[in-house]
Amino acid sequence: MKSFTEINHPLVQHKLSVLRNKETSSATFRKTVEEMTGLLAYEVTRHLQTKEVAITTPLEETTGPMIAEDVILVSIMRAGNSMLEALLNLMPFARAGHIGIYRDKFIKNTVEYYFRLPQNIKGKRILLADPIVATGDTVIACLDRLKQYEVGQIHLLTMLISPEGLEKVQHFHPDVDVLSASKERGLNEKGYLLPGIGDAGNRLYHTLE
C-alpha cells in the first residue's frame, strides 16, 4: 500500500519559506531545519506504541503513557545529520545509524562509502531522514540496504521530494511511509528541485557549490 503525506500545517510551510529564501544564513538554515524536523516528527511518531507506567506527581500517585518502542533513527549523510540531531533531541531514548551513499555521475550509479547501524534491528521501526529527495536513487539504495536487515516499518522523513523521486520510491518500495513538507514541481537539468531550497548540505554547512 502506497503512503504519502504532505504536511500543510502553517508553521511547517512558514519554515519552508525561510529555507527557500536564498538570503537565509547557514546558522538560521540549520536552526530552521531543526525546528521543522521537530514538527514533521510530531506527525510521523503519532502511532508509536506506548505503555502505562507508574508516576508519582508532587500531589499523588498516578499512571501515564511512555513510548515503548525501540525506535531506530537513520541519517542519509551528510545533510540528513542535521535532521538526525533534531530527532535525537526529541527522542533521546532512540538508537541511531548513518548511511553514506551518493550518486556518481560518471559511473551513473550509487556508491556506498559508509554504513553503520545499531545491532538487533530486525523488525524495528525505522525513521529515515534526508532533507531532500530529488531523483530518488540514493534513497532507493538506502532502502534496499535497510531491508537486507529485515527491519520493520520504514518512515521516510524529508523536507522536499520531487514527483519523480516519490514515484520511484513508491514503485520500488510501496510499503515505505513517505512524509514531506512539499512535493515539488520537478527537477531542473542539474537535478535540483524546483522551486527547491538549493543544495541542503552546502547551505547547512556553509560550503561552496
UniProtKB/TrEMBL annotation:
This is Uracil phosphoribosyltransferase. InterPro entries: PRTase-like (IPR029057), PRTase_dom (IPR000836), UPRT (IPR005765), UPRTase/APRTase (IPR050054). Residues 8-207 form the Phosphoribosyltransferase domain. Belongs to the UPRTase family. Its cofactor is Mg(2+). NCBIfam families: PRK00129.1, upp. Pfam families: UPRTase. Keywords: Allosteric enzyme, Glycosyltransferase, GTP-binding, Nucleotide-binding, Transferase. Its EC number is 2.4.2.9. GO terms for molecular function: GTP binding; uracil phosphoribosyltransferase activity. Pathway: Pyrimidine metabolism; UMP biosynthesis via salvage pathway; UMP from uracil: step 1/1. GO terms for biological process: UMP salvage; uracil salvage. The gene is upp. Gene3D superfamilies: 3.40.50.2020.
